[in-house]
Amino acid sequence: MRPAALIAWTSALLSAGLAGCHGPELHLQNEAGHPTFVDGRACTDEVLPYRYYGTTRWDALPKVDLQDGIPTFDRLPDSGRVTIEAPSSPWLFPLDFPLELLARALHGRRDVTATVTVREKPAAELSEEQIPPAEIGKLRARAFAARVER
Which residue of 16, 59, 63, 90 shows the fewest CB atoms closer than 10 Å? Predict the structure, then answer.
C-alpha cells in the first residue's frame, strides 16, 4: 500500500474512532435559576455530557424569593427523569461500535433537553395566618430560648 493511501486510511479510521468518543449531551433549561442536582450532585452547568445511556434524574429546589425582607415559601421541590436510548442493542457486542458510528453518521448526535421547573404550592397548603413582621422578633426570641434550654 502506498504511503498516501495508508495515511488516508489511518486518518479516516482515527476520525471515525474519535467520533464515537463524544456522546450526546443533556441540556438543562433553568430560566428561573433554581438550585439543581443531577444524579444527586449539585449542577450549575446548562450543558452536561452524558456519562452513559439510560436514565438520569434531575432534582430542583425552589429559589427562595424575598417579599419585604421575608422569604416566601410558595413553591415545592420537583424532580424529573431523562432517558436516552442506546443507539444499538448491547447484545451485539462485536458490532455495537460500528453500528453506533453508523447511527451517528445517519442521525447525528442525539442531544436531550430537559426543562427544570418547580411546582407551585397548592392553595390548601398556603398558610392563612401570616406572622406579622412585628411578631417575628418575639418568635425568634422564643426559638432561641427553647434552643438554649436543651
Answer: 90
Q: Is residue 5 part of a domain?
A: no
Within-domain flag for 15: no
Cell 464515537 belongs to 20
Greater confidence, 112 or 50?
A: 112
Q: What is the pLDDT of residues 69-85, one digit of tens each?
A: 777 778 888 999 988 77
Contacts of 6 by beta carbon, 8 Å cutoff, 6+ apart: none
pTM of the model: 0.59
How far apart CA 64 and CA 53 sit, in angstroms, is 34
Domain assignment present for 9: no
Give the rounded distance of the alpha carbon of 122 from its chain centre. 25
Q: Which helix (H) or strand (E) holds 83?
A: strand 78-84
Domain that holds residue 62: 23-149
